[in-house]
Amino acid sequence: MTSYNDQAGIGGPAGGQGTDGYHRVGLPELAAVVDRVRTNVESVIEGKPEAIRIALTVMLAEGHLLLEDVPGVGKTMLAKALAKSVDCTVRRIQFTPDLLPSDVTGTNIYDQHQRDFEFRPGAIFAQIVIGDEINRASPKTQSALLESMAERQVTIDGTSYELPSPFMVVATQNPVEMEGTYPLPEAQRDRFMARISIGYPSPEAEFAMLDVHGGADPLEDLQPVAHAADILKLIDLVRAVHIADPVRRYAVDLVGATRNSHELRLGASPRATLHLVRAARAAAALDGRDYVIPDDIQRLAVPVLAHRLMPTAETQLNRRTTEQIVAEIVARLPLPRPQGGPAVRRG
């Protein structure tokens, strides 16, 4: 009996078979590299497999990751562990109220010997950029990241400079209710593919952490287990993951439902749809599939969409979160139709 996800038009082009020989050969290699990186990060971050999975998904989908949570739960540790697991250039930016946009992007300095201006790259010129406590800088400085995150380039005095590849920003921020924080502008939030919270560890994981972190910093012994060239190859594999038209339509309908919700005054953008589909491709590849199923879209809907939405005043008064609203939209939206069959609804 053919399952719903295996029917032509929803799963792979031919019952979930590979779209081409190159891609079928590449998926096992992808799994091997990802497993090495995951194991490396998990040696430092205990008890948070889903957060690590989403971080890897965003990396393979060529996106940027926002880690939002209270201080001390391991946001920066996760960002640094991910960066140290890949042999590539890494820069860290400590966002503070006095940080200037030129500190991020770079600036032109006059060279008296050559009697000309010379471009001095800023901290954004790295393959993995860790933005620590991004919402402690002013909105003007935060906006210095807009062009680099969207277009992977920096423009200074009319000249554009291309950023290295792969390029990923992993930013941490504290909740906006905390002292000394500025809310991220809507345009800035929209450039992050996903937002996740680390959360407090379980008592068992916290107890184990006392041994791992009690004596020395485990990051000091962390060694790279993948090269930047490996990540670029895996990104190419993810781009080739098949997504059928009904699943594309499902993603469009899901994002469109946020724009029509009476609980939201700002729904998700078309960029959110693109990010959702790209992340779903990466999630499918992590599961060893070269085609996307509706489950991939559903699993990523909250981390990809919730941080882009703005609730109405009434929604805030009712203490309703955007995560709850997205989860309810996912629960009530009909699944895409298998080819030649009726719409599938949850029982």
Task: Compose a concise summary of this entry.
43% of the residues lie in helices and 15% in strands. The protein has 347 residues and is of the alpha/beta class. α1 (21-42) packs across α2, α2 (49-60) crosses α11 and α9 (228-239) crosses α11.
Radius of gyration: 21 Å
User: What is the total tally of β strands?
Assistant: 13
Cross-sheet strand order for the largest sheet: 3-6-9-1-10
Structure class: alpha/beta
CATH architecture label of the largest domain: 3-Layer(aba) Sandwich
Structural domain count = 2
Q: Please, what is the average pLDDT?
A: 86
Shape type: globular
Task: Give me some keywords for this one.
Helicase, Ruva Protein, domain 3; alpha/beta; 13 strands; Rossmann fold; 347 residues; globular; 43% helix; disordered N terminus; 2 domains; two-stranded parallel sheet
Question: Could you explain how this protein is built, in words?
Answer:
Helix content is 43%, strand content 15%. By secondary structure, the protein is of the alpha/beta class. The relative contact order is 0.16. The model is unreliable at 1-9, 13-25 and 340-347 (pLDDT under 50).
Give the SSE layout.
Blueprint: H1 21-42, H2 49-60, E1 65-68, H3 75-84, E2 86-87, E3 90-94, H4 101-105, E4 106-111, E5 116-121, E6 128-132, H5 139-142, H6 146-151, E7 153-156, E8 159-162, E9 168-173, H7 186-190, E10 194-196, H8 203-214, E11 226-227, H9 228-239, H10 245-259, E12 264-266, H11 270-286, H12 294-305, E13 310-311, H13 313-317, H14 322-332
Parallel strand pairs: 1-9, 1-10, 2-11, 3-6, 6-9
Antiparallel strand pairs: 4-5, 7-8, 12-13
Helix pairs in contact: 1-2, 2-11, 9-11, 10-11, 10-12, 11-12, 12-14
